[in-house]
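Below is one such protein, fold included:
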Amino acid sequence: MDFRAFIIAISATCLPAFRSASYTAVFQQSGIQGRVYQVSGNRMPSPRHSTASPADSSRGLNTPSSSPPQPEGPGVKAVICIFALTNDSQITRQGTSPYCEAVHTRLIRQANTDEKGNFTILLPPGTYSVFTKKGDLFYATRRDEKNNIAPVEVLPGKITRVDCSVESDHAAVY
């Protein structure tokens, strides 16, 4: 057996063992990445988020945009809390406010954003709930059809985009 055949034979037998989950995890990271932005002022829908043609608008037709509007407002420094998938029945609300005093599922990871609200958090594949934290309170506004709070699915080897809003001290108007 010549040297080249020897290398090919060794590669065929050793490399599959080398490609274990821990080996590929180094090269195939998964998690979430996004931005926390502040919501304030008039949040009523406007024609600028429409793909309707001027002719459609004149007839009263308003076709929603096929892509969701990008987060508006200044990015803010915040704390992001990743919990196991959390249902609305698994939190303790602060009165009738959108804030939660307690989340009764497992905290998976917590991280700070940068000064502009940007964050990247590495996570194993799974489905999680994403909250922002203000003092001792948690905040999330999105729900799915099963009342799971701010659900985010992380796929193997993929970074999922997540944008989180926080209310300012000045009430937003809807």
